[in-house]
Amino acid sequence: xxxxxRTELGDFLRSRRRxxxxxxxGVPVSGSRRTPGLRREEVALLSGVSHTWYTxxxxxxxxxxxxxxxxxVARTLRMSPAEHRYVLRLAGLxxxxxxxxxxxxxxxxxxxxxxxxxxxxxxxxxxxxxxxxWNAAYERFYPGVATAVPADRNLLWVVFTDAYVRELLGDWTxxxxxxxxxxxxxxxxxVHDAAVVDLVDRLQQASEHFRAGWASHDVDQFSSSExxxxxxxxxxxLLEHHQLTLADSPDLHLVVxxxxxGSDSATRLARLSSG
Length: 275
What we know:
434 Repressor (Amino-terminal Domain), Beta-Lactamase, 48% helix, 14% strand, elongated
């Protein structure tokens, strides 16, 4: 674990510990507490580790926790599956996301795949969510993707800073928070990468909503599900949101929006394409 990962792991464990109600875990509470949640010694006791060792873990000391110990702490802190995977990655106990070298170029065959998706808006992102390719349907869905400068052509950046995207998302407050928590889970042990650090720094300066969400250390896993959008040209769109990894370029992720069966979204997407 490098220093950045150790620091993030300590901050994350502390944030989870403070969110728990001691009574929910059978911990007796007497008198008042200066801070909410469990105490460090209580986490250590419930996890079967020493108080000193757990304190060092939260402090970001250069120690090497085992998988068994991290699993025990995750159970004590009642982590979700996404949170559990996140701490394993930070602790260096899970494979880091594969990388294609970060050259930012989309293979020609991937662009052909995007184009073959027809009326379904689709784009490709890298590990730091830079958008490196898209089809015509996505450009009609979000015209700003073609005009943005490369530094700003990033999914998380546009979600938090682009007024058009703010109106496009059906519930911006909820949707933007979901994007943030999924981004944090996906970058995991690469949260210290220069591109990620630069993006986070810029967003913290640009968006108070992002700043508060990032400070929470919340993470969540991506799941394919229905999303509602409000497009200025064709109105409400109910779309299924899918994300796939390209087998021969594992650092690239294909994101596709397809019309929900039984809705009129397919007709609206076709109208958007013909317009």
